[in-house]
Every structure is written in C-alpha cells, then in structure tokens.
Amino acid sequence: MQGVVVILAITVVVFGAALALLLTAGDPAARLPIVVVPALLVHTVLAGTALIVIVRRSPTTFRSIGFTKPTARLWHLLWQVPVIITVAVLVQVATSVLTSGASEDAGGSIDSLLTGTSGTTVVVLVVTLAVLVPFWEETLFRGLIFTSTRARWGTGVATAVTALLFAIAHGIPILLPYYVTLGFALSLLRIFHRSIWGPLVLHVTINTIASTAVLTTLG
Fold it and tell me: What is the DSSP-derived secondary structure letter of residue 58?
C-alpha cells in the first residue's frame, strides 16, 4: 500500500499549504480560485508522477496493473458506459430523495469556485478534473490496490475493498452511495476488460460530463 501512503502525504502537504494560504489571506473567498485550482493541478501532477515512480521502482509492472494492449472488448463500453452512468444517476437521485435533497449542496462548491474566474483557470480545472485526475486515480485504485488485493484475497474482496476506498477517498458523505456504486462498476470493468482502459474510459467520461454540466450552468 505504498501508493496510498504516498498519495495521502502529497494530499496533506499540498492542500495543507493551500489552506494555510487561504487562512492568511485578507479575503479568503476572493483568493479561493487562484489558490485551489493551482493546488489541485500540483496535487494531480505530483500524484501521477509519484505513482509512475513507484511502479518503475518496484517489482510491479505497468502491464501487471492493467496497462495492457487495448483489445476489441473495449467496444462493449459503447453499452456499458451508458448503463453504468444511468445506474449511478438513479442511485444519486434515490439518495437525494431519501435525504430530502441534501445532496444538492454538494455540487455547489465547484460552481462557486469557478464563478468570476478567468477562462484559462476554467480550462485548466476542467482538463485536470476530466483527464488527469482519472489517470492517477485509476492507476492507484484499479491498478495498484486492486491488483495487490486480488493477489492476496481474491477478486471479490479486491472489488469490494477498492470500491469502498474509492468512495471514502472522495470525502463527501452524502455522495457515498453514488461513489460506492461507481467504485464497484469501475472494478467490474477492470475485471471484464482485463485491463485498466475500461475503467479509465468510464472515469474520464463521467468527469467530463460533470465538468461540462458545471460550465453549462455558469454559461
């Protein structure tokens, strides 16, 4: 679990520094975009780089954690992605109904972060969230964690553990059912496609849709 420890350390250092900058600012709200967006980008780059270094310096290979040659099985994503997104949305809707719409507040943070920011900042944030974040998250969860856990305790345990860790890592209690559902779906794609490309495509697709939806509301 070296990857988990390293990512946790990077997260504490980067976002701890960002929080310190905000707390010492005269107007934290005004400085939020110019502090949080660079922090997110730095965190993503450091996380991705760290995971690449970990794989290269360990007996683990990129091939063994799922970075294999894409196969024709990826065509199944044409139906798998829409089905999974539909199920995830239904889970979120059900959660929202059962909690009397409390989950609506969870999406407001990004809106407030982007409001009044420059076009360059928006582009950097969207690219980071839609493409770069899925890369390092899939490398960690469906790559290193899933592979090592499956080798020790089997596919079932690996699927459950990875899904739960993925949900907890996103740190939004009201969205926990949604992220658990998505975590299981990503792990099942990892199993079905026998590579990391299936879950990576789904992850990028979902993050892109979410980012586009936020931009649409701002426009």
Answer: S
Average pLDDT, the chain: 88
Tokens for 53? 């270094």
* Structural contact between residues 159 and 188, judged by C-beta atoms closer than 8 angstroms: yes
pTM: 0.89
Q: Say whether 44 sits in a helix, a strand or coil.
A: helix
Secondary structure (3-state) at 176:
helix
> Which residues, at least 6 apart from 208, have a Cβ–Cβ distance to it below 8 Å?
130, 131
- With cut-offs at 50, 70 and 90, classify the pLDDT of residue 27: confident
> How far, in Å, CA of 55 to CA of 193, rounded?
21
- The answer to whether residues 151 and 143 touch, using CB atoms and an 8 Å cutoff, is no
Question: Which distant-in-sequence residues (6+ apart) come within 8 Å of 111 by Cβ?
Answer: 214, 217, 218
Determine the number of helices (DSSP H) and then strands (DSSP E) in the chain.
Answer: 10, 0
Q: Is 115 left (phi over 0), alpha (psi -120 to 50) or beta?
A: beta
Residue whose entry in the numeric block shows the structure tokens 């990004």: 110
- Centroid of chain to Cα 203: 7
- φ, ψ for residue 138 (rounded to 5)? -70, -35
Helix (H) or strand (E) holding 134: helix 133-138
Rounded CA-CA distance 52/126 in Å is: 23
Question: In the chain, what are the domain boundaries?
Answer: 2-218
